[in-house]
Amino acid sequence: MALKETLFLVLLAIHLVAAAIWVGGLLFFIFAVVPAARTAPDADIPARLGRAFRPVAWVALGTLVVTGPLLLFIQGLGAAVLRLGFWRSPFGVTLGVKVILVVTVLALTLWHDIVLGPRSQMVSDPGPSRRVGRAIGLLSLVIFLAGMALAQGF
User: Fold this and answer.
1) Helix (DSSP H) and strand (DSSP E) numbers for the chain
2) pLDDT, tens only, 112-136
3) pTM (2 decimals)?
4) Burial status of residue 103 (CB atoms within 10 A of its CB: 0-12, 13-18, 19 or more)
5) What are phi and psi of 57, to 5 degrees?
6) Which of 23, 11, 29, 6 is nearest to 129 (CA)?
7) Cα–Cα distance between 115 and 10 in angstroms, integer?
8) Model confidence at 80, in pLDDT bands (50, 70, 90)?
9) Are 68 and 127 in contact (CB under 8 A)?
10) pLDDT score for 130
11) 52 three-state secondary structure
């Protein structure tokens, strides 16, 4: 196996593990932690688990942001993305949507972690934080699906 192929497979594996950690963690939080917290609201479960998961989540996100472009570069798409025609192709459109969603998720996650999370603790109202968390989870799932489409050449 050539070095380029080996590097691609290693980066792909790292990218997929990071995606599984990020998306899986979000889905676990949305579908398990939040409902469980409703049965014991005094336990502050979402905030404590959220603080514990935050470093793992940011490492996963950082890994995705680094490995995604590297994977494209290894596939020979480095110079192609500079041409307007690339972004008009089905692959380019899908990649463009994915990039826009990634930037949106990064911004929402920062807002959630820096502003909404602490504010919800101070005012005891998890509503806004919960809604943004759900949006992050949904958008992350769409990003994951877009990645699968890209892997198939769409």
Assistant:
1) 7, 0
2) 999 987 887 777 777 788 889 889 9
3) 0.87
4) exposed
5) -65, -45
6) 29
7) 36
8) confident
9) no
10) 83
11) helix
80 vs 43: CA distance, rounded Å: 52
- The structure tokens listed for 144 are 């994951």
> Which pair of structure tokens corresponds to residue 140?
């992350």
- The answer to whether 109 and 119 are in contact (CB under 8 A) is no
Tokens of 100: 């826009």
* Separation of alpha carbons 113 and 3, rounded Å: 39
Amino acid at 128: P
Neighbours of 125 (CB within 10 A): 12
What's the token pair of residue 17? Answer: 């593990």
What is the C-alpha to C-alpha distance for residues 83 and 78, in angstroms, rounded to an integer? 10
